[in-house]
Write a structure and sequence with these properties.
This protein has 254 residues and is of the alpha/beta class. It folds into 2 domains: 152 residues, P-loop containing nucleotide triphosphate hydrolases (Rossmann fold), CATH 3.40.50.300; 84 residues, Conserved Hypothetical Protein Ylqf, Chain: A, domain 2 (Orthogonal Bundle). Strands 3-2-1-4-6-5 form a 6-stranded mixed β-sheet, sandwiched between helices. The longest helix has 15 residues. The protein is elongated.
């Protein structure tokens, strides 16, 4: 943890502009208020990048942008759909205001928010090493993005240690086979959908949700998927794994 803090402070010190890359599906959970405070204290410009915006409805994106814009300029990006990277490049040039000089951009965020993919999207080439494996970026890397922009790619920021597996499950840091409580993670996903996009959950699993609790909705989904044990009981763990996998693969859309 101490080494991460030192790395973050060093990146902020060296960079002209800082990017905080968050997951557009749950930006509040993947923001780092400590990092934001450090950047603000440094007096350097911050841009919040809402990555994976293709997995979220336009309505939800606008709500997130409205809220985050009070903290810093927010830009939507979907590397998969090749959307928003040119806008992000222009925003970097705008806030840096270096008048033709080289711009050093620090990229910060949780593991699996797609920092390296965002850098590659802005660069136009696969210059930063990427992987679906959490923690793939092992050390600080410098990436030339052209137009006098140079990125500092970092392994990620874990502000509270790596012991919150609910966040790790939602981020895809741990897949369903490595979660100690997949049912709990699945219920967290269900709760988020019920709060923000209940219709999306209903349509995806072909269920009708009323006032049921998250554990009851999990059983409804298990029944609809025909996940039954030998005695006809609903296999909640199998249903939970299905939900987690659908979420992490990006086919269950927020």
């Amino acid at each position: 943890m101490a080494s991460y803090n030192m790395m973050v402070k060093d990146v902020i010190k060296k960079a002209d502009v800082l990017l905080e890359v968050v997951d557009a599906r749950f930006p509040e959970e993947t923001r780092n208020s400590d990092v934001e405070r450090l950047v603000k204290r440094s007096g350097k410009p911050l841009i919040i990048v809402l990555n994976k915006c293709d997995l979220v409805s336009k309505e939800q994106l606008e709500k997130s942008k409205s809220k985050l814009s009070k903290v810093a300029p927010a830009v939507f990006v979907s590397v998969k759909e090749r959307f928003g990277t040119t806008i992000l490049r222009h925003k970097i040039l705008e806030v840096a205001d270096k008048r033709g000089k080289n711009i050093l951009v620090g990229s910060l965020g949780y593991p699996n928010t797609g920092k390296s993919s965002v850098i590659n999207g802005v660069s136009g080439k696969a210059k930063a090493s990427t992987s679906s494996i959490s923690g793939h970026t092992k050390g600080v890397q410098l990436v030339n993005a052209g137009s006098k922009i140079m990125f500092i790619d970092t392994p990620g920021v874990i502000p509270f240690g790596d012991n919150d597996e609910y966040i790790q499950g939602m981020l895809g840091v741990k897949d369903s086979t490595h979660l100690g409580d997949p049912i709990g993670v699945a219920m967290k996903i269900i709760e988020k959908f019920c709060a923000e996009n209940k219709t999306g959950l209903e349509e995806f699993y072909n269920v009708k949700i009323g006032d049921e609790m998250s554990d009851e909705i999990l059983e409804m989904i298990g029944l609809q998927c025909n996940f039954l044990k030998k005695k006809g009981e609903i296999d909640e763990e199998r249903a939970a794994v299905r939900i987690i996998n659908d979420w992490q693969k990006g086919i269950l859309l927020m």
